[in-house]
Specification:
- It contains 23 helices and 19 strands.
- The chain has a domain of about 325 residues: Homocysteine-binding-like domain (TIM Barrel), CATH 3.20.20.330.
- By secondary structure, it is an alpha/beta fold.
Length: about 625
């Protein structure tokens, strides 16, 4: 028996997702893989009329359906299968299913939301059949990428210019829509999932959340590809993120590829693909349009011209997978494959282990940053002014408090609206939705802060960037701790862990170290939390209270910080510095002096962030 046969037998014993990942990983190590080109461009060439779109089944449908390309999976299956086959025979290793718009959310425009699952099953089945036809012709294996396109509603942006906090759709509604689509694609035979043409990262985070739940239910995790789109020469997505911030936001999905497609032609995409290639520790996929659309809505770049541009990407080491988007055809794919075939695939870089957060822009906690200022003024317990504004519903002025924090140097801002007289969950959502419309504030990462996890979770459903959660603990036991930690991870956030268990808050050096060490082991070994995304808060308590037992609180924190940083690799230390001087409320000079002395020693011991007045 040959070694190849051994490998095949081993692969056949794997769940489908693992087998596909192994096969694609091996192929991607050998050469630049080829994705297909545009489906819409090929459909337009068929010049189908309304009757052809409707077919017999929908001949009496109450709305016009011409332009609903995904419906052709049901009414013109032979044509769709033939397009897939053309791309496979032109050299594509994988084709995308004709399901770009096949969610109930988008299909509602045609009154066809009830067809969403069926459209995805049939879309995947047609691509699967074409892959088999291609294999029968030349004996080469092909893959089916289940296409999940953008939605016609966004969770990060308002559709009402007079109401920046308005949202036409919720995170939970997006999860439901994508879940139905993903189940259909898997049932139809898709090998992997491709979230593409992403304009709003929060929509995709909901899609990732749905995919992870489905993989867990099915016991099989398919590879996931993620492709954003830069909408103009600003170098940002439609929802305002830079490429690196976008990557930090979705990195928790552990995608098989990250990349960009659509929007700009290859020349305009080049710098952004280069940026992702430098920061992403996974494969890079690029499939631009065949240039910018002309005045007739067509695309002018010839196969040879587009291939020459993408050859430059390959030559300079940016590419692992390449294809075409709008305007590209099988001829483009054939030319691109030939152009890149002489180059080796990009090598995945060794990325240093740093805490990486994002708002609209990325934040990386490198060794060059001795201390991260987490602005406390947008916390109702940290600012009497903010509390009054939030309680009064004066969000415009409350946003000015946030803006001041960023302008004064806060690298992260802490948002806490836990006030007894408020519906904190509702207020958190309203405030974060308004904040998202303020680019000068939203550019920095957010710390979602609450003593109630349901408030934290509601906040995470509003944030497209990679946030920091404050906080979780073991005060309700290990099982509850693990449950909340897994949820935080599902939303792609980093986490602050309080030194708190069922016996209470840790107040001695020994208890602080013991609880943090136990939490670290649980998070890294059972939840799979990256250690650099764990921030411990070993509890800063008030000193000078007149009670003898409180005298050593400050020293206990500093010494515990030193031990935690030495024994728990890559973890971080934070704390609420103002707690230290609580006994001196109203005496600001004394409080500021105490904080300065405390921070001097705590930072030397390894405290690298804190909630402070920026």
């Amino acid at each position: 028996m040959t070694e190849a046969q051994h490998i095949e037998i081993d692969r056949n014993s794997l769940p489908k997702g693992e087998e596909v990942r192994a096969a694609l990983t091996q192929a991607a190590a050998e050469r630049i893989l080829i994705l297909d080109g545009a489906m819409g461009t090929m459909i337009q060439q068929l010049k189908l009329d309304e009757a052809a779109y409707r077919g017999e089944r929908f001949k009496d449908w109450h709305k016009d359906v011409r332009g609903n390309n995904d419906l052709l999976n049901l009414t013109q299956p032979d044509a769709i299968r033939a397009i897939h086959l053309q791309y496979y025979l032109a050299g594509a290793d994988m084709v995308e299913t004709n399901t770009f718009s096949s969610t109930d959310i988008v299909m509602a425009d045609y009154g066809m939301q009830a067809l969403a699952y069926e459209l995805n099953v049939e879309g995947a089945r047609l691509a699967r059949e074409a892959a088999q036809q291609a294999f029968d012709i030349d004996g080469r294996r092909r893959f089916v990428a289940g296409a999940l396109g953008p939605l016609n509603k966004t969770a990060s942006m308002s559709t009402d210019v007079n109401s920046p906090g308005h949202r036409a759709i919720t995170f939970d509604e997006i999860v439901k829509g994508y879940a139905e689509q993903i189940n259909g694609l898997i049932d139809g035979g898709a090998d992997l999932l491709l979230f593409e043409t992403i304009t709003d990262t929060l929509n995709t985070k909901a899609g990732i959340f749905a995919a992870q739940r489905i993989f867990e239910e099915r016991g099989d995790e398919l590879p996931v590809m993620i492709s954003g789109t830069i909408t103009d020469l600003s170098g940002r997505t439609l929802s305002g993120q830079t490429p690196t911030a976008f990557w930090y936001s979705v990195r928790h999905a552990k995608p098989f590829t990250i990349g960009l497609n659509c929007a700009l032609g290859a020349n305009a995409m080049r710098a952004h693909i280069n940026e992702l290639s430098d920061v992403a520790d996974t494969l890079i996929c690029a499939y631009p349009n065949a240039g910018l659309p002309n005045e007739f809505g067509g695309y002018d770049e010839t196969p040879e011209f587009m291939a020459r541009q993408l050859e430059g990407f390959a030559r300079d080491g940016f590419l692992n997978i390449v294809g075409g988007c709008c305007g590209s055809t099988p001829d483009h794919i054939r030319a691109i494959k030939e152009a890149v075939s002489k180059y080796k695939p990009r090598k995945i870089p060794e990325v240093p282990t740093f805490l990486r957060l994002s708002g609209l822009e990325p934040f990386t906690l490198t060794g060059d940053i001795p201390f991260v200022n987490i602005g406390e003024r947008t916390n109702v317990t940290g600012s009497a002014r903010f509390r009054k504004l939030i309680t009064a519903g004066d969000y415009t002025a409350a946003l000015e408090v946030a803006r001041d924090q960023v302008q004064n140097g806060a690298q992260v801002i802490d948002i806490n609206v836990d006030e007894g007289l408020l519906d904190s969950q509702k207020v958190m959502v309203e405030f974060l939705n308004l904040l998202a419309a303020e680019p000068d504030i939203a550019r920095v990462p957010l710390m979602i802060d609450s003593s109630k996890f349901e408030v934290i979770e509601a906040g995470l459903k509003c944030v497209q960037g990679k946030a920091l959660v404050n906080s979780i603990s073991m005060k309700e036991g290990v099982e509850k701790f693990l449950e909340t930690a897994r949820l935080v991870r599902s939303y792609g956030a980093a986490v602050v862990v309080m030194a708190f268990d069922e016996q209470g808050q840790a107040d001695t050096y020994e208890r602080k170290v013991e609880i943090c060490s136990k939490a670290y082991k649980l998070l890294t070994e059972e939840v799979g939390f990256p250690p650099e995304d764990i921030v411990f808060d070993p509890n800063i308590f008030a000193v000078a209270t007149g009670i003898e037992e409180h005298v050593g609180y400050g020293i206990a924190f500093i010494e515990a910080t030193r031990t935690i940083r030495q024994t728990l690799p890559h973890a971080h230390i934070s704390g609420g510095v103002s707690n230290l001087s609580f006994s001196f409320r109203g005496n600001e000079p004394v409080r500021e002096a105490m904080h300065s002395v405390f921070l001097y020693h705590a930072i030397q011991a390894g405290m690298d962030m804190g909630i402070v007045n920026a």
